[in-house]
Amino acid sequence: MAVPFFDENVYQMQLKNAEAKCPETVPSGDSSEVNETDVIPQGYIMKQLAIAVEAGKKFSSMKDLLVSSRSSSPIKERAGLTLSAMKSLVLREKEDKSILELSADEEVLSLLYSLFNAEGHNARRNIPAGSLTPTMATLPREIHGAPLESFVVKLSEIIGKFKTLRKMGLFWFKVVAELRRLWSQGKHVPGIPMDEIPDLHSCLLYQQLQVINCCISRKRRRIIATESLNAVIRELSSNVEASEGKLVVSPILYARVSSGELIPRLGADHPFDNLTMLETGELVFSPVTQEGPLLTEDLIKETEEFVIRTGSLGAGCSQLLSDMQAFKAANPGCILEDFVRWHSPPDWTENDLSDESKDASFGCGDPLSSRGHLSSRMKKEGNLWRELWETAKPLPAVSQTPLFDEDFAVEGILNALEDIPPSQLFEQLFLSLLGLGFVIAEATLSTDCNLSKLFYECKDYIVVTCQGNNNWSEKVDDLCQVYETMEMMLLNPEEVIKIIKQPEDTSTAAAGEPKGRFKRLTLYFGGKGKHLKKPLSKDHKNSEDNPSRQSFSSLFSRKPPRPEIAFPAEKLLQPEENDWTLV
After folding, report:
1. I need a surface site. Which of 154, 188, 374, 449 has the fewest CB within 10 A?
2. What are the CA-CA distances from residue 318 to residues 377, 378, 409 (Å)?
3. In DSSP terms, which residues pair with 176 in a beta bridge?
4. Chain centroid to CA 256: how far?
């Protein structure tokens, strides 16, 4: 008969074996080492991030996490450990303290290089070409994750391989420091589009990185536009000198005003639909305008609340004034009606040709009114557009005060990333990696007639739990369990099919057979906090009575639950209750 017996040497051996089965504390940064079984992120990485989500709720910011973790290891928070087990944890804690800062670790530097290496982001996982359909790739947007193979997804997988919150936090600060360096050098963040407005369907972290890249692109464009304007001014000056006061008239460089004087066009981009100015007959040119503000989901919410609270027009008024100034600089001799025809065509109505000929035959009417008229809202007394037009000065966009301060915006983002609440960061990383795993798995499992039904039930549960639900982290352990189910279907399809087809009740296992062939990964950080404690479910109790089915009883139910019902299961991230060994 098996007798429970604790031995410290056995415990140390188990600890070493467990560490040997999972990556080292500092994971490898070589993305080329991903083999076929690692096509999707491994389940233990999801568990690590899930624990980080729960444990991170105790801290207000990443800085607070690091300060709080200096004096004690998060592993010490485990309840119910024996004295001998605590001794081994002390040894590991001393090892932790020997790595005071990850910045001095060559492997960490290698990880950073891998993460920020633009060429590394071009190397995709071993996914069969054409296996991912556009429909499959929408899952990350549905659960508010990050696009496949993006910087955020790669970061998620790297951070999820660290075993302690402290190391996760230290690596995060190294990432933020590197983002600062890239910004100061005007280099784009790899794995993020270089010039796209924030995707509000993706996680906030991805949106913030999009803003950083957009700001870098905008600063580059402003430099080019300034150089272009200076070149035009130099060309105008050289034309005057070469012709000894006789200008070579070019509609691209000049416009003749009603007085007959030639005025240089500044900041003109291209002619607009052969439209001519009402008073001078000169071509209307579209000006180079200032780009609008880059707003992430949190800033949009703040702006809406500000407008509702104060009744302010927000940034719209400033943008309109800026456009008017740029239009005046590009179209000397223009009037408000010309601007309205370019900027807001619905507010201008052209007269019929019959009406024009009738007015001309009687020799009456204003020449402007014979061409058309403004809408009623534009004619109202005190109209904002007319007031702004009267105050607008001819000024190219590159010479105006920027509407959106890129330096201020990016500095605000980088400061926010340093002070981000740990749970908020880890939640975004968790969802990003969750989306990647399911999208890749769907390419294989959706075509398997035996497993597709169970897979789509898992996927539906993911979507229903995470979509538009700010409290989804309360079910983070269930999400881990569903991911494990999907991972097992992908890696061991034959065994899964066999177990699915088994009757609900089978004969009991032989005496002494180990329970839980697929054991949970032992926790290396985080404690048995209140968030991780739950009473065992009824299914789990039944599985202990029937060891032969324990390995999958909690993962594969004969009747998978509907999306709104949590998967019945034990807490996946619960550490072992004791360190007893059966001998």
Report:
1. 449
2. 20, 18, 18
3. none
4. 50
